[in-house]
Amino acid sequence: MSGKPYRLSKGGSRIDRSQPISFSFDGKTLSGLAGDTLATAVMASGQKLFGRSFKYHRPRGVVGLGAEEMNALVGVGAGARHEPNLRATQVELYSGLTSISQNRWPSLSFDVGAFNSLFSRFFPGGFYYKTFMWPQAFWKHVYEPFIRRAAGLGKAADERDPDAYEHMHIHADVVVVGGGIAGLTATEAAAVSGARVLLIDENPVLGGIADITAGKAGDSSVADLAKEIAARVAKLPNVHVLTRTTAAGHYHHNYMLAFERVADHDPALLAAGAPRHRLWRIRAGHVILATGALERPIAFANNDRPGIMLAAAARAMVERYGVAPGTSGVVFTNNDDAYLTAFVLKKAGVAVRVVDSRARPEGDLPKLAMADRIEVDAGSVISVVEGSSGVTAVKIAAYRRGQGRVITEKKVACDFVAMSGGFNPVLHLWCHNGGKIRFDDALASFRPHTHGDAITAAGGANGTMSVAETLTEAAAAGEAAAKSVNGKVKASKIKLPKVEEPKRGALETLWFAPATGKYNQGNKHFIDFQNDVTAADLELAQREGYESVEHTKRYTTFGMATDQGKTSNINGLGVLSEATGKPIPEIGITTFRPPYTPYSFGSIAGALTKDLFLPVRRTPIFQWHVDRGAVFEPVGQWRRAYTYPEPGEDKHRSINREILCVRNKVGLLDASTLGKIEIKGPDAAEFLDRMYTNTFSTLKVGKCRYGLMMNELGFLTDDGVTVRLDEDHFLMHTTSGGADRIAAWLEEWLQTEWTQYKVFVTPVTEQWAQFAIAGPRAREVLAKLEPDFHFSNEAFPHMSFKTGKLGGYPVRIFRISFSGEQSYEVATPANLGRGLWDAIMEAGKEFGIAPYGTEALHVLRAEKGYIVIGDETDGTTTPYDVGLDGLVSKKKADFIGKRSLEQAYLKGPNRKQLVGLLTEDPNEVLPDGAYAVRTVKDKPPMEMIGQVTSTYMSPTLNRSIAMALIENGRARMGEVISFPLEGGKVVKAKITGAVFYDKDGGRIHA
Amino acid sequence: MLVVTCPVCGAKGDETDFHYGGQAHIRRPATHDPVNISDEEQRDYLFIRNNPKGLHFERWRCDRGCGKWFHAARDTQSLEFKAFYGIIELPPEELQKEAKGPWADYFKKRAKAKA
Amino acid sequence: MLEARFESALAQRSAPENIYIDMREISERGMIDLRGQTSDRKFTAAARAVLGTDLPKEPRTSATWGDAKILWLSPDQWLITCPRGKAQDLTNALVKELGDTHSLAINVSDMRAIIRLEGEFAREVVMKGSTLDLTDGDYTPGTVRRMRFAEIAALLHIVEEKTIDIYVFRSYAHYAWDFLVKAARKGSEVRLFPNSG
Amino acid sequence: MTQRYSIFSLARNAMGYHMDWEKAWRSPAPKSEYDAVIVGAGGHGLATAYYLAKNHKMTNIAVVEKGWLGGGNTGRNTTIIRSNYLQDPSIAIYELARSLYENLSQELNFNMMFSPRGVMMLCQTEHEFRAFKRTAHANRLAGLDCRMITPAEVKEIVPIINDDPTCRYPILGAYYQPRGGTGRHDAVAWGYARGADALGVDIIQNCEVTGIRREGGKVVGLDTAKGTIKTKKIGVVAAGHVSTIMDMAGVRMPIESLCLQALVSEPIKPVIDCVVMANTVHGYISQSDKGELVIGGGTDPYNNYSQRGSFTALEHTVTALVETFPIISRLRMLRQWGGIVDMTGDRSPIIGKTDVDGLYVNCGWGTGGFKAIPGSGWVFADTMANDRPHPIAEPFSLNRFTEGRLIDESVAAAVAH
Question: What's the pTM?
Answer without folding.
Answer: 0.96
